[in-house]
Write a structure and sequence with these properties.
Mean pLDDT: 96
Number of helices: 12
Number of strands: 14
CATH architecture of the largest domain: 3-Layer(aba) Sandwich
Structural class: alpha/beta
Largest sheet: 7 strands, mixed
Oligomer: single chain
């Protein structure tokens, strides 16, 4: 059955599906119960599944993750919500020192099937600590998987796959896209979330993006005089560089787009891998379009900070003119 849903509603439906199919799936986070979360992603789930499956947590992110680790060791599949991206850092020690390492530390005998949902990115006019893009921190850590959807169908499919995974998954949700609508097929078998997907075919330039920037890249492709192939990474760790390389072997040019600062961002890693694997295919230097290397600015200045389709088009022109 296909429905027209927002990303937020698609995530809600994925949580509901996971909870219906497995009684060990439970939700844990700040204000996710009767309130339904600040973005209403968990709306209605407390009413339908009760206090023992949808739990409001105190304002203590380290405690939220630590409690989930204990629950997972007892056979549960906790799905956590960190209320905003900038709030995850108090839990950083639990995530890096414990969550990412227990499986290997126990020689595979202990699994931690925990999904940590994090609304991330800017574009909503929020105050400080509410518009961060910290995905690179987690993609750098062995033992964690990192996913980020870009539309309602990928939101539904990727979140279900994350919850079903026996590995810990950091699930970044592009908060300024929560209200974007699209069709969602609930009967469709989830595509492999760990593989990048081509969301627009083209022949001149490969444009790689993820999360909130996929829509921006598609806007640039619609406006460009050139034929742009747009790839949605979906998985930031593991990184599907083979799909990117296959595209670059056809187009000969690559533009990488992400909202996070450019210094040591995902774009740098992708450029390094593709620069090596496609050395003889590249017709121009690899271009990156990113946030600036400064702390996220006040909301009245964020439009100047965030990559837009004009900046992508400038990078495309540079690649074509090289």
């Amino acid at each position: 059955m296909t429905n027209e849903l927002t990303i937020a509603k698609a995530l809600n439906q994925a949580l509901r599906t996971a909870m219906e199919e497995d009684s060990k799936v439970l939700l844990f986070g700040e204000d996710i119960g009767k309130l339904g979360g600040v973005f209403r992603v968990t709306d209605g789930l407390h009413k339908d599944f009760g206090d023992h499956r949808v739990l409001d947590a105190p304002l203590a992110e380290s405690g939220i993750v630590g409690t989930a680790i204990g629950l997972a060791m007892r056979g549960y599949r906790p799905v956590l919500e960190i209320q905003f991206d900038g709030f995850v850092f108090p839990a950083f020690d639990q995530i890096i020192s414990q969550l990412a390492k227990v499986h290997r530390r126990t020689n595979g005998s202990v699994k931690l099937p925990i999904t940590i949902r994090i609304p991330y990115g800017g574009g909503i006019g929020a105050v400080e600590h509410h518009s961060e893009s910290p995905e690179t921190f987690f993609a750098h850590i062995p033992g964690l998987r990192v996913l980020t959807p870009s539309d309602p169908q990928s939101a539904y499919s990727c979140l279900l796959s994350a919850i079903r995974s026996n590995d810990p998954v950091i699930f970044f949700e592009p908060k300024r896209r929560y209200w974007d609508k699209g069709s969602v097929d609930h009967t469709q078998s989830p595509a492999d979330p760990w593989r990048a997907r081509i969301v627009r075919t083209g022949s001149d330039v490969t444009v790689v993006a993820y999360g909130p920037m996929v829509k921006t890249a598609l806007q640039a492709a619609n406006a460009s005089e050139y034929s742009l192939e747009v790839i949605d990474l979906q998985s930031l760790s593991p990184l599907d560089d083979r799909s990117i390389a296959d595209s670059v072997e056809r187009t000969g040019r690559l533009v990488i787009v992400h909202e996070a600062p450019g210094n040591l961002g995902l774009g740098a890693e992708i450029a390094a891998r593709i620069g090596k694997s496609c050395f003889y295919n590249l017709e121009a230097p690899i271009e990156r379009v990113t946030g600036y290397d400064i702390p996220y600015p006040p909301s009245k200045l964020e439009e100047h900070y965030l990559p837009d389709h004009d900046r992508i088009l400038v990078a495309v022109d540079s690649a074509m003119e090289a």
